[in-house]
Amino acid sequence: MATWIVLGVVAVLLAAGWAYHTANRLDRLNVRVDLARQSLYASLDRRAVVVRAIAAELPGSELAALADRAERAAPEAREDAENALSSALARTDASGRSPALVIELADAETRVMMARRFYNDAVRDTRALAERRLVRWLRLGGRASPPTYFEIIERVSPGRGD
């Protein structure tokens, strides 16, 4: 009889330890998602600055307005605003840009691509843990909705923008 009580206590302690560890891991993954999102938005903002510099070389261009719209967009509308900016940028003539801006834009786009991939990797890992049946049943992730992926056009070739 005492053996069953000890085994029951050990089983409860193991289950509680697993739940505690899993909840902490999920919390760390959510922090990782938040940091990756901040990095992604910083990369997108840097690209918008470069696009504004390109727009200054192109009188009458809509690029500056689109860059402003992308930077000020609400999180749920940011993907669409960034895609519109990428498409408009692809429609411009790249041959007339100064070499410094070509390099800056390539660097900014590479940073956006990397930041988006890091963010989406963090989202994937967080969702994979949060969507496990036992984690959902025990509500180890709280009531927060799972993070969403950030999907944008990375580099648009001219003529294929829309």
Instruction: Work out the strand percent.
Output: under 5%
Tally the helices: 5
What integer value in Å does the Rg equal?
23 Å
**Computed structural class:** mainly alpha
* Shape estimate: rod-shaped
Compressed to H and E, one letter per element, the order equals HHHHH
Compute the number of strand runs. Answer: 0
Distance between the termini: 73 Å
Biggest β-sheet description: none
State the helical fraction.
Answer: over 70%
Mean pLDDT: 89
Q: Oligomeric form of this entry?
A: single chain
Low-confidence stretches: 158-162
Describe this structure in words.
This protein is mostly helical. Helices cover 72% and strands 0% of the residues. It is built from five helices and no strands. The longest helix has 56 residues, at 2-57.
